[in-house]
Amino acid sequence: MTSHLRLITIRVLSLLALLVLWIVAAALTADPQILPMPMALIKPFFTEFASGELPFHLSMTALRVLWAFVLAMSIGLCLGLIMGYFPEVDRWLDPWLVVFLNLPALVLIVLCYLWIGLNETAAIAAVTLNKVPNVTVIVREGARALNPDLKAMAKVFHMRRSVYLRHVVLPQLSPFIAAAARSGIAVIWKIVLVVEFLGRSNGVGFQIHLYFQLFDVALVLVYSLTFIAVMLSVEWLFLQPWERQIRRWRDS
Amino acid sequence: MVVLTTLGAPDTSMEGQLIRVDIKTKSFGEIEILRDIAFSVEEGETVAILGPSGIGKTTLLRLIANTDPDFVGKVDRPNNMAIVFQEPTLLPWRSVLKNITLVHEGLGNDDAMAALERVGLGGKGDMFPGQLSLGQQRRLALARAFTGRPQLLIMDEPFVSLDEKTADEMLALSEDLIRETRPATVFVTHSRKEAKRLANRVLELNGSPASFT
Questions:
Q1: Please, which residues 157-196 of chain A have a Cβ atom closer than 8 Å to chain B?
Q2: pLDDT of B113-148, one tens digit each?
Q3: CATH at B37
Q4: Of A240, A210, A208, A212, which is closest to residue A224 (Cα–Cα)?
Q5: What is the pTM (predicted TM-score) of this model?
Q6: Same-domain status, B2 and B70
Q7: What is the distance in angstroms between the Cα of A71 and the nearest Cα belonging to chain B?
Q8: Is the same domain home to B109 and B209?
Q9: CA distance A134 to A166
Q10: Nearest-10 crossing angle of helices A170-199, A204-213
Q11: Does B83 sit within 8 Å of A152, measured CB to CB?
């Protein structure tokens, strides 16, 4: 427990140090148009919040992140399992994977908008396609690392397929799925902002685009920092505890 | 390559011979590992397969257990099988009790608890296998194997890397369980002492490709 407390203390101190750095930099710049003081963001934050603008755009972005996350995880999980299980399929699909892994996010986004149109489907498809190869690669590693002895054991004892998948395969894959989920959510929300920046009329990315054109650094910061806070709390409140839960058997 | 195996279908011609092994040849790529291995095991009989490390004992067991169907020949085996590996091969992410009930779904918690009690793991049902000592993990593997009252029991060097005292206890426990359950047992070892103690019949694997001498 003390080590946990220590970890939290370090985190808080580290974030405070960042804040101090910001204050120093803002003092040196001495131009709120370029870098406002952190305290100067509090008022615009509450104004945006009270007007309902901030919650609206936040929720639009969060919804897109959620959609893309669920889609990318499910498709990547299936592909990764199939490619990990069947070497022949893997040999055929691996070059595709390499191509998609090396395709810049921006190219996929622009192509999706051009081919599908400037709509929600294109936005979510672009983000999903950006993330699927990544999830696939991680899950494929997991599927390749499945313990052959446990498989033999399950076969000899005639374990039912569903029981085998749930109690033998899934627990072996869960560290890989957790890794894919955590790196996934981090990448996805960044790509969602770009997608919104380029072709949506709402969301945090759209607002950043708007205030970028108005050279309003304060509001650009308000929107980005709020969303960073949302994503960090998802990480700390959901993903990390979930990962601890599935790792419980290792630590006891 | 012709592959002939029979999946546990009851064969009336077997008459007490629970398993019948007739392996013509088994190769990995170019290298032939096993050739002309034929034997049968009756109900309640324990056959030990003896041979030095690397001779192909484990390969032979995999063919018998049907976890490797890629060979030329035929193996008749009953449907109700159990296996004990060199390693305990447990599900470390499930409780000790679940390690038994997940494998034997027809079994209630009480039966599984009794099985744990029988191998000296009473009261440890809620622990994870990682919290047990290696000796206890092996006992759990034995409990898992015998709980389903198997007709065919396959054991692959289940007593290696145990200290002498623990190995001896395990051997005694296996002896008792085999006597109670009376499966046809095929048991692989490199220790003549273990083979003599546990088996009614000892078959020795020799040569390359290996066959019985």
A1: 157-160, 163, 167-168, 171
A2: 998 998 888 888 899 999 998 889 999 999 999 998
A3: 3.40.50.300
A4: A208
A5: 0.77
A6: yes
A7: 28
A8: no
A9: 23
A10: 30
A11: yes
